[in-house]
Write a structure and sequence with these properties.
By secondary structure, this protein is mostly helical. Helices cover about 45% and strands about 10% of the residues. Strand 1 and strand 2 form a beta hairpin.
Amino acid sequence: MKKNLLVSVKLTFVLILICAVVFPFLIAGISKAAPGGGKGETITVNGKVVGYEKIGQSFTDDKYFWGRPSAAGYNAAGSGGSNKGPSNPDYLQLVNGRIDSFLAHNPGIKKEEIPSEMVTASGSGLDPDISPEGAYVQVKRIATVQNLPEEKVRALVKKHIQKPLAGILGPSRVNVLKLNIALDELK
């Protein structure tokens, strides 16, 4: 019995060393080789960090493109969806409120023209991208508020469309933060 106890104690210390020391340092070392050095891929403007490439932000001003709504308030520490389905009356009320708000801020748009991602939150609540359709449907509002020609704003959206990986993996998308930065640079 003493022999088994000694082996168990030794094995416990070896596993603690591997799991609590070696593995975390190994992962930290690997993260330093990743883009952003393990601190995330930041986006800077004039030397100031304005956001992260992979985390969405809230844009509610009419002069900017809006991103996808977030069930987590764009908080990366508490990311997650609402887990409410289309049969939940609270969820339906929330989505209908988002539709009404989108229509109020985008006159001339019909309810059927609103892409679903503009009124429904993503599973993580942190999605930084919208579809090209989600960007194009906002062009008229932004051109009017920013006093820019619609063609110029539409061309800006087209320039910021990211194609699927290898041309087939995933949908085309537009990073909202990068698009809004480029919009600011137009002025």
